[in-house]
Design goal:
binds succinic acid, Flavocytochrome C3, Chain A, domain 1, single chain, 36% helix, 3 domains, alpha/beta, 7-stranded mixed beta sheet
Length: 525
Amino acid sequence: MTDTTHETADVLVVGSGIAGCAAALAAAREGSDVLLLTKAERPDDASTDWAQGGISTTRGDPESLKEDVLEASDGTADPAAVDVLVENADDAVEDVLVDTLEIPFDETDDGEFDYTREAAHSEHRILHVDAATGSHILRPFLAHVDDHDRIEVRQDTAALELIADEGRVHGVVTDESATGHPIYAGTTILATGGIGALYGRSTNPEGATGDGIAMAALAGATVDDLEYVQFHPTAYAGSEAQRGSKRSGEAAERDTFLLSEALRGEGAVLLNGNGERFMEDYHPDAELAPRDVVARAVAAEREATGEVVLDVSPLEFESEYPGIAEKCRDRGIEGSEIPVAPCEHFLCGGIDVDDRGRTSLERLYAVGECARTGVHGANRLASTSLLEGLVWGLRAGEDAAATDATPERVEAPELRDSDPDLPERFAAEKFTRLRRTMDEYLGLERDPDEVARASAVLRRLKGEVDAYVRTRTARDLYELRNASVVALLIARAASENEESTGCHYVVDEAEEETTDPEPATADRP
Ligand code: SIN
């Protein structure tokens, strides 16, 4: 039996990154009572806290930012969605980040904002706080929503299922009771972030298990563009060890960390194992080429020459980027050459939404990385993710409040807690298998035969996971269920798209045979 105790909220927000906070704030400003649920226990359980480079503005020139977004996406971004982004960018940043939260963005000696530039941006237009912008935004934002009279923030609480009936969503079932705790809401906004936990190396926190995407897809929401998984070109190469996590029970060693694109934007260069710069051979914009191009070039040069380093000697590295410099020191990296490798970073696709974050299901919204607004197309421009989360979070929160929908108490999904005999390391071992499959077959390059193999492995895995999820209300099992649902959706999207675009790079086997063993030529003009 489902727990009969239940709660209601006008607007229910699931997730506590910038998009969730913005949605909660906007709905509360409109007079709604908001419940913000998050499985996070600390700010750095949300990807926003990990964001380094900054948040793009238009600096009064929306057309120029629009052109860069479209160009980085290889022409695949939706121009109407990009218009929404660029037309609302500066107001949203000024209202929430500058006036309300008073984020201490870096300034020049003249007291003006010190705008930086990243790859594929034609202008210096990115606001930042050294290269730790996400945590400088998120922590005050969380404190602000937590203090708000109309917002209750509940941490360490996972939504396990949506309560849906005939195409309309009425809230979620949480893990606050062994048989599931229903929370009914007039409107529900998913802001659950990305999918980094599906890969061995990611710049996301380990809780990025695709929860919102899986729950929405299982409830029948439309999802799109899931093959477009963005890899950041310059994460610390580390020891290439698999991610450690509480899920796997291994020591939580996070060997990798991001080396922000802002470093290249300000002059850092990439060198291969022979000490040569190589990016000009791949793209006229060299180190500032679109992210997918740089990521594949770095992977190819690592394979061909043994390693790639980011040479930060042209920068005032220690004083301008103290957070990243400290991470380097902690790992014993000496000198100005930091070994780098591509690493999963951001999902460009997700739950399909319109210009206000409305999904294909009534009363369900999605914002931030779990949503597919159309802004990123096949490849996201740097420093647009915080901006997209902020803009769409505000718009969705406002729209959700305006619906003035009353929570309806339909029957909630029944969760069970009946089988105590779950093998102890079940979730950890299945997660390891899932990540290996994603790393091997659904990484930077996709070979159609390998994608088919991945689909078969993932289907089997999901079958095994489903059998246990039906018997036990455990957060790690639901996270595994969510990860396996999203992994399968990625595999399906990759198999259905035969065209190489942006982050989805299809290896043509015939071409591979003729060009091997010179993989470094894969991207060369
Ligand atoms: C970075 O700092 O390189 C990441 C910025 C982003 O992903 O938008």
